[in-house]
Design brief:
The complex is a heterotrimer of chains A (522), B (676) and C (500). With 676 residues, chain B is mostly helical. Chain B has helices at residues 7-27, 31-55, 84-107, 114-133, 137-155, 162-193, 198-204, 210-227, 236-239, 245-254, 259-266, 268-271, 275-296, 302-322, 326-353, 376-390, 396-410, 414-439, 447-450, 458-473, 476-479, 486-491, 504-518, 524-551, 554-562, 564-571, 576-639, 643-675, and strands spanning 61-71, 74-82. The relative contact order of chain B is 0.07. In chain C, a hairpin with a 2-residue loop joins strand 3 (326-329) and strand 4. Classes of the chains: A mainly alpha (522), B mainly alpha (676), C mainly alpha (500).
């Protein structure tokens, strides 16, 4: 059972999708909805053992299953989870329930195809996080594009076609270049490694540090383009606002919650351990982009008049934090980045859900159309407030723990990084509070808004797990951190052991500071 | 009892849960009682702990609850530290907090947001307790942000008012700027000492280099300046008066705003290692004190006067910290909590009484006057508060303020001392200006509102009386004899000990220690002269106010017309808000606007542009192929069905085109070979 | 001069012999079949082709054998190529059975001409001499000219055929001229003999001769025309659009396959010594082809024409495999067999995909409604989800998306490029292939995201089981090859093993 668990989790949604396609009629919408929900719930229940039976002291992959797949080129069906991916898998299964349930009333046409797409999406994302074989990873990584393309293109807003193809092509451009990087890695392994063809990550890890820095940098750039577009890092982010704004609520939730994480996850899983010297070399560049992303994203978010777009740009800022943490290349930073991925999934996912709820009622997302909602919809505004606070990193809620660790890590790497990054914290509070003020404070003068109804039970039910998680991670993040830290430690060790000499300059900044400021014999 | 410290934040947390979840449906009017009960229970626990600390063992006790965040070598727990410093803070916070809760039950009676208010108030207590109790910087930061949030929520409590929600937002964002500094300071502490837990940090603090300690000190002070409203981050506090008055009393006078003082005092072992930072703090404190006091001289809004007074008094506290008199700073923090809480609640009582006056006149002193007889309890307690803050012995303010000025003087900070003394003079003046304008003279209240003026209910006056008593005795009991009072002995274990020598601030520390040990003041004729001078300043300020606002009421207007520029400058608070608006807020708005168009046009434009180029070149290649190929097809399809004509058409040129292109290819290849 | 009787082994040339017999049988049977039953010719041909497939399969693994004085060679490579051709033919016939009736081209000659073309292809696959290769090429080409213009009542088709013929004849001349020049310089037409003549000191002198280079360029141009490499591609959009759709499918795969077999043999067997030179030329053509094909496809509104441009682009990818097979290490040319096996695998993947894509056109085609405009596919995904999905699968495969055959194919092609350090070629190619997603997915967009117009005729797919079966098999094969490409890869590898 243990061996097949991951496979089951990955492919149950696919099986569900096939069953929906084959055995349900278009008109049986209620049956389709219930069935899809049931599938996602079963999937979630199956993923619970990943939490309970996860060995926190083990850095390597657990629950592994490895089957030879295309032996001629060394491809295997190799799945497993470690600290870096296990929480993302769980986040995915939870998010899928939420995004299925939140679509009940929002999607009113072509339901059958819609839920099929959602379920396919689920398989793609789960596979991406579980794959240990790079080939397998790439397959899943690409597969997710297709259902998302349909989700945006069919059930999206007014500019859906543009947004869908933009999302699709933009991410595709990145990922095909990444494919070249993967191929380069594969052939380098043939030359420098064991000599047997393999896409097995655990074997490739051994080869990474041996790659000459020149080639490593090229491979790094190939991976960088692929993942940076996905993250998205400045200046590759412009597909995101379009996709987010046009996508249906569930699409936005999945995009923000899971899909973007594939990029950051990719950096932690592949780039850092596989290309350690190049990662070190590019630290200043990556940090620069991350910091620009943090500040730029926040400022542009502030300028938005559309709630959804604002939240979308806030993602750019938040993901900048994640990337900053990852490229701090120390335990605190990477761990913080990892946790922040989960946090962003929860908080921003919830924000999109909330935006979806109000959009469903009012059919507008213009901030100026709202105002004074606090009195009209108290439950909604309370949940919104909590989510907003979680998003701006208020202590006691989840966002803080991640952001704090990232900043600690960044500061440890260089105080300059942290000094710039904290600007993002100030701006983050500014745009969110301003948004909140414009939507919820003031007088309720728009007659349309006076008819608004508060959250119904279904809505509260799917928001509740998000809120619970916000508090849980905020107050007692130990179980989450414990699951990640050993694996993160391993990655950090891998990327630092192989520190290249040419990059001493970058690494010595903080050291210099340290020696200048620190104790005589401490 | 000390082991039960975890109960302290638990009670308000309970209150938050009860009122938060069931407030609007079930507890409703009982929300205030529940919240006050919770605050009271916490206060009882605090009293128990304080009793044990003061009369019992003393010392430092850590109560470990759970591991919170750990990442590699970074590890922080949720744990509480009970030591003299936190005991004093707890007493102040829970005591004043409890009184304000009781007061609010009356004050906010009938407000539609009644349960919400008490939820926030309890949440504030919870956060403040965390801030004070935490045994490490991170937990302090949790409380720090928590009180910031509550301040935001409570300032914007009447959120339908644009100015209220604006003020709340402003408070939060300005605080966040400070928090950024706090965060960086915290990181630096961790990098340099490897821990964030106070006891561990202070254990190795003596090893930190001067540069490191100074950097930490300055960064943390940015945080303190944000929270405690020091220049240049004080701008939010006057605006915070948009909140309900009990909130102003509790949060924006007695407790939250003093968090910065507490933090600096808490960090004293690091500060003494970096005296440069202390110098900065002393100077900023002194300048803030006189700056805010000067604005307070001319304000007409009763709460704004108190607000600027608070900023000014906080300046005094930082002055004390800056000259190394940490104990004096905390002492002033305590006495200030008593009399400023009292003053705010008193002003609340006045506002409450003028409930029926037009909205814009309720807080304006120009529309008050002669209220003394209508509300005697409020009046007399208010006078006690004013005397206390003015620094007239033997009331509370005198003892603490005198210590601060004396310390400034004796540590060689003469400039600071001068600023402080002038500020003290102004303080006495504007406080009594306030009293005379509000309670004396003829009544200028709106006629319709006059009949409604009444003394406030007991739930409001009893807290006033209790605070008045504290304002009377709260200084002399712990603070006598000056600079050698009980409070210093008690606090000594929590505050900085050792010194690195060679610097004025370190001498100050030395001085405080010596004086603490000797158990008496520094004595000598100089000290006596200083005390006399202080008293003279206080009395002089009061007398001046009496002269200008009771005796000869034409003087103020005369002065205003004599110095119109200065008067306008003060009235408009030195135009600082306008300057910030023009120099920071506007540029940011402009920046964000231009970045947004940059994003939409340039960043996204390049993406769309490249796809456009592809499309255009596709069109071009389409045309190219069309000219040579498609033309034939279309032509044939539409023109003729006869084979011969097709043949003719092709003969007439199209195939030549093909061949031409092909030969071009051949030549291209040739040249590629020949010329490469 | 004694007359040398060439060694002739019919068993080695069994596929061609069998096919010749089949052609005779069909021609004769055609005489006795009434107009209504001409589809029987198709079924007969199909059965024959099936047997042909068995013969080819039987030859697999038989080692390298030559006959007809070395004109003809049978090895795994030729078997592989023949297998692809045969399978393509089978599907072409399957797709044609009902389509031909509908287009009123249901004559026995139709199938006979296909079989003739196949004969030419088989000969090309086994050609070991410039003469035999040329013979095969001409047999194939002349049959193709006829097939392209087979819809006699359609001016488009007629014109396409004529153009194709004129251009083809011209190219044949070019190619023949190249052959003549080579023969003049080396005194040989046999591939191995040419190679021998070009090696050593004497060979170096010939290589240095500009005429040799000119001859090489003529070869590149001649084959480039047949493969429709830019700038020799001009005929292709016309021919592909005008031809009966099943023939388009047939040509896009089989003609390409056979020509490539010849290209591989000629360049790698006969001209390895000139690799440095032709590699550069092909590099240029490859880049032009990949970019031009993909970019020009974007502007097309006619689906058939778009697929025609797309097949130009695909020829580019295939050439990328051939270019990157060559690696020059320290001035010495080394061939990586993986490049050619990647090309072979790609062709298999391309076969199932492209046959499927054109098959979809046939599937929608009716007598009064050709359905080859992109607009004609509006709303189909919504009303006919399964058909829509099939098309999406083909498009995904064409675009090189996992988990389809096209992805694995591209993976190998670009893998070779990376392996032999053709980084820029790989980057250009893979970006071009990402661009291709734009026009493929525009059709998907039309199918799923745009409602069917009021004035558009109702969707009615062909009810012929033959088409349905063919498409089903092709869809499954496309996915299967994407998931389990192992056996084909192994076959491709072993077919290259003895070649270089």
């Amino acid at each position: 059972m243990e061996n097949y668990l991951l496979t089951l989790i990955t492919f149950i949604p696919l099986a569900g999708a096939v069953i929906v396609m084959l055995f349900f009629k278009k008109e049986q919408t209620v049956a389709i909805k219930s069935f899809a929900t049931a599938v996602t719930i079963v999937d979630f229940l199956l993923s619970i053992p990943l939490w309970t039976r996860f060995d926190t002291s083990e850095a390597g992959f657990q629950f592994v299953q490895k089957v030879s797949w295309i032996p001629t080129i060394g491809v295997s069906y190799f799945v497993g989870v470690d600290g870096i991916s296990v929480l993302l898998v769980l986040l995915t299964t939870i998010t899928m329930i939420v995004s299925t349930v939140c679509s009940f009333s929002a999607i009113v046409d072509r339901e059958k195809e819609y839920y099929v797409c959602l379920l396919l999406m689920s398989t793609g994302m789960l596979g991406t996080f579980m794959a240990v074989d790079i080939f397998l990873f790439y397959v899943f990584f690409e597969i997710t594009l297709v259902p998302m393309y349909f989700l945006i293109g069919i059930w999206g807003g007014s500019r859906k076609l543009y947004a869908a193809i933009k999302f699709f092509l933009y991410t595709l451009f990145g990922s095909v270049l990444m494919l070249l990087g993967i191929l380069a890695l594969y052939f380098v392994n043939l030359k420098l490694g064991t000599g047997t063809p393999t896409f097995d990550l655990t074997e490739l890890y051994a080869v990474g540090p041996k790659i000459p820095i020149g080639l490593q940098s090229w491979i790094f750039l190939a991976f960088f383009v692929g993942f940076a577009i996905k993250v998205p890092m400045f200046p590759f982010h412009t597909w995101l606002p379009d996709a987010h704004v046009e996508a249906p609520t569930a699409g936005s939730v999945i995009l923000a919650g899971i899909l973007l994480k594939m990029g950051t996850y990719g950096f932690v899983r592949f780039v850092l351990p596989l290309l350690p010297q190049a990662s070190q070399l590019f630290v200043p560049f990556m940090v620069l982009l991350s910091i620009i992303g943090i500040i730029y994203g926040a400022l542009v978010a502030m300028a938005q008049t559309d709630v959804k777009k604002l939240v979308a740009y806030s993602s750019v800022s938040h993901l900048g934090f994640v990337m900053l943490g990852v490229f701090a290349l120390n335990q605190q930073g990477v761990l913080g980045g990892q946790l922040q991925m989960i946090n962003h999934g929860i908080s921003t996912g919830a924000l999109f859900l909330l935006v979806g709820i109000i959009y469903e009622r009012r059919h507008t997302r213009q901030i100026s159309d709202f105002g004074g909602l606090s009195t009209q919809v108290p439950i909604y505004s309370t949940i919104f407030a909590v989510t907003m606070l979680s998003s701006i990193g208020l202590p006691g809620l989840n966002g803080f723990v991640g952001e704090f660790l990232i900043l600690v890590g960044a500061f440890k790497a260089s105080y300059v990084y942290a000094a710039f990054a904290v600007i993002g914290i100030v701006l983050g509070a500014a745009y969110m509070l301003w948004l909140f003020q414009r939507m919820f404070f003031g007088t309720l003068d728009n007659p349309e808004n006076q008819k608004l109804t508060d959250c119904n039970t279904r809505e509260i039910l799917y928001l509740l797990p998000m809120v619970v998680l916000m508090f849980w991670i905020g107050l007692y993040p130990r179980p989450f951190l414990a699951r990640m830290e050993v694996s993160v430690g391993k990655v950090v060790k891998m990327v630092n052991v192989a520190a290249a000499p040419q990059n001493n300059k970058a690494a010595s900044l903080p050291v210099e500071l340290r020696s200048r400021l620190k104790a005589k014999n401490f | 009892m000390i082991k039960l410290a975890w109960l302290i934040p638990l009670f308000p947390a309970l209150g938050v849960v009860i009122n938060g979840f069931f407030g609007s449906r079930y507890t409703r009017d009982k929300a205030g009682h529940i919240a006050a009960l919770m605050a009271g229970l916490s206060f009882l626990v605090v009293l128990g702990i304080a009793f044990e600390m003061i009369f019992g063992s003393g010392g430092k006790h850590t109560i470990h609850l759970w591991d919170w965040i750990s990442a590699g070598k970074f590890s922080v727990s949720v744990a509480f530290l009970i030591d003299p410093l936190s005991t004093i803070m707890l007493l102040v916070v829970s005591g004043v907090g409890f009184l304000v809760h009781v007061y609010s039950v009356g004050y906010l009676h009938g407000d539609p947001g009644y349960p919400r208010f008490f939820t926030y108030l309890n949440l504030f207590m919870l956060s403040m307790f965390l801030l004070v109790l935490g045994d490490n910087y991170l937990l302090m930061f949790v409380g720090w942000e928590g009180v910031g949030l509550c301040s935001y929520l409570l300032i914007g409590f009447w959120y339908e008012k644009q100015s209220a929600s604006d003020a709340g937002k402003k408070a939060f964002i300005v605080n966040r700027i400070g928090d950024a500094g706090f965060l960086l300071g915290m990181f630096m502490i961790w990098v340099l000492t490897g821990s964030l837990t106070y006891l561990e940090v202070f254990h190795v603090a003596p090893n930190i280099t001067e540069a490191g300690a100074t950097a930490i000190g300055l960064l943390l002070f940015i945080g303190a300046a944000g929270k405690s409203a020091q220049i240049p981050l004080y701008v939010w506090l006057p605006d915070a008066m948009e909140g309900p008055t009990p909130v102003s009393a509790l949060i924006h006078a007695a407790t939250m705003v003093t968090a910065g003082v507490y933090m600096v005092a808490r960090t004293s072992p690091i500060y003494v290692m970096g005296p440069g930072a202390l110098e900065v703090i002393a100077l900023v404190g002194a300048v803030t004190a006189i700056f805010a006091a000067s604005i307070g001289l001319v304000q007409n809004d009763i709460k704004r006067v108190l607000a600027y007074s608070t900023v000014s008094q906080l300046g005094f506290m930082f002055m004390a910290l800056g000259v190394g008199a940490f104990g004096a700073g905390i002492f002033h923090l305590m006495t200030h909590a008593f009399f400023k809480g009292l003053l705010f609640l008193g002003s609340g009582s006045v506002i409450h009484a003028l409930h029926h006056a037009p909205e814009d006149q309720q807080q304006d002193m120009r529309y008050m006057g002669g209220l003394r007889s209508k509300m005697p309890i409020t009046y007399w307690t208010f006078v006690i508060g004013a005397v206390a803050i003015a620094g007239v012995p033997p009331l509370a303010g005198f003892w603490s303020k005198d210590e601060i000025l004396a310390n400034a003087f004796f540590t060689g900070h003469h400039f600071v001392w001068v600023l402080g003394s002038v500020a003290a003079l102004m303080t006495a003046f504007y406080m009594f200006r306030l009293i005379f304008m509000t309670f004396h003279g003829e009544m200028r209240v709106d006629h319709h509102a006059r009949e409604y003026i009444h003394e406030s209910p007991y739930s409001m006056t009893v807290p006033l009386m209790i605070l008045a008593v504290l304002s009377v005795v709260g200084g002399i009991i712990p603070g006598f004899p000056p600079e050698g009072g009980w409070i210093h002995t008690f606090l000594a274990p929590s505050l900085a000990k050792g010194s690195a020598g060679g610097h004025a601030a370190n001498e100050a520390v030395q001085f405080v220690r010596v004086s603490a040990k000797s158990g008496g003041g520094h004595g000598g004729p100089a000290a006596v002269i200083l005390i006399i001078l202080a008293i003279a300043i206080a009395v002089g300020g009061i007398a001046l106010a009496w002269f200008m606002y009771l005796k000869n009421t034409a003087v103020p207007d005369g002065l205003a017309s004599r110095f119109p520029g200065l008067h306008r400058l003060l009235l408009n608070k030195y135009y600082i808000d306008e300057i910030y608006q023009a120099c920071i807020v506007k540029p940011i708005y402009r920046l964000m606007g231009s970045l947004w168009s940059f994003d939409a046009n340039v960043v996204d434009g390049s993406v769309n542009g490249s796809s456009l180029i592809t499309l255009v070149s596709s069109r071009f290649s389409g045309i190219f192929d069309l000219k040579t190929v498609d033309g034939a097809v279309n032509g044939v399809a539409s023109v003729t069905k006869f084979f011969s004509q097709v043949f003719k058409f092709i003969q007439s040129g199209m195939v030549q085109n093909y061949l031409f292109v092909m030969l071009l290819g051949v030549f291209m290849m040739l040249s590629a070979y020949l010329f490469r | 001069m004694p007359l040398v009787i060439p060694d002739i082994s019919l068993s080695i040339a069994a596929p061609e012999v069998g096919l010749a017999i089949l052609i005779c049988v069909v021609v004769v049977a055609d005489l006795f079949t009434s107009m209504e039953n001409k589809a029987g010719m198709g079924i007969l041909s199909l059965a024959g082709v099936a047997i042909l497939g068995l013969i080819v399969l039987f030859q697999w693994g038989g080692g390298v054998r030559t006959t007809f004085s070395g004109f003809y060679i049978a090895d795994n490579f030729s078997s592989f190529v023949k297998m692809v051709v045969v399978v393509t033919t089978a599907f072409t016939i399957l797709l044609s059975l009902q389509y031909a009736k509908m287009e009123k081209i249901n004559y026995g000659e139709f199938y006979v001409m296909i079989l003739f073309a196949v004969f030419g292809m088989l000969v090309m696959a086994s050609g070991n001499d410039l003469i035999s290769i040329y013979l095969g090429l001409e047999t194939m080409s002349i049959s193709s000219y006829v097939l392209v213009s087979f819809i006699r009542h359609d001016p488009l088709s007629r014109e396409a055929g004529l153009k194709y013929f004129l251009m083809g004849a011209f190219t044949s001349g070019i190619l023949l001229y190249g052959i003549a020049l080579t023969y003049g310089l080396t005194g040989a037409t046999s591939l191995t003999e040419i190679a021998k003549a070009l090696s050593g000191l004497q060979g170096a002198a010939i290589i240095a001769d500009p005429v040799m280079v000119f001859s090489l360029i003529l070869f590149v141009a001649g084959f480039g025309f047949k493969l429709a490499l830019v700038p020799f591609h001009m005929w292709l959009p016309d021919a592909y659009t005008g031809a009966p759709t099943s023939i388009t499918a047939f040509m896009s795969v089989a003609v390409k396959m056979a020509t490539l077999a010849a290209v591989i043999r000629v360049f790698f067997i006969a001209f390895p010594a000139l690799a440095g030179k032709w590699n550069l030329l092909l590099w240029l053509l490859t880049v032009f082809t990949m970019v031009w094909g993909n970019v020009a496809a974007i502007a097309q509104t006619n689906l058939k024409r778009m697929l025609a441009y797309s097949s130009i682009a695909h020829a580019g990818y295939i050439m990328l495999g051939i270019v990157t097979t060559t690696k020059i290490v320290g001035g010495k040319v080394v061939f990586t067999p993986d490049g050619i096996s990647a090309v072979l695998f790609y062709l298999v993947a391309y076969m199932v995909t492209n046959l499927g894509a054109f098959g979809m056109l046939i599937y929608l085609c009716r007598e009064d409604f050709r359905g080859d405009n992109i607009e004609d596919w509006r709303g189909i995904g919504q009303d006919h989800p399964w058909a829509g999905m099939a098309f999406v699968v083909f498009f995904l495969s064409l675009g090189g998306f996992p988990p389809t055959a096209g992805f694995v194919g591209k993976l190998f092609l670009f893998g070779t490029a990376i392996q032999n350090e053709y980084y820029w070629l790989a980057v250009i190619g893979i970006l071009a292939s990402a661009v291709s997603i734009y026009y493929y997915f525009r059709v998907v967009m039309v199918m799923y995201m745009e409602p069917r117009g009021e004035s558009q005729p109702a969707i009615e797919f062909s009810k012929a089981p033959s088409i349905f079966v063919a498409l089903l098999v092709l869809v499954l094969a496309t996915i299967y090859l994407g998931l389990f490409p192992g056996s084909i890869i192994a076959a491709a590898k072993s077919s290259v093993a003895g070649l270089l």
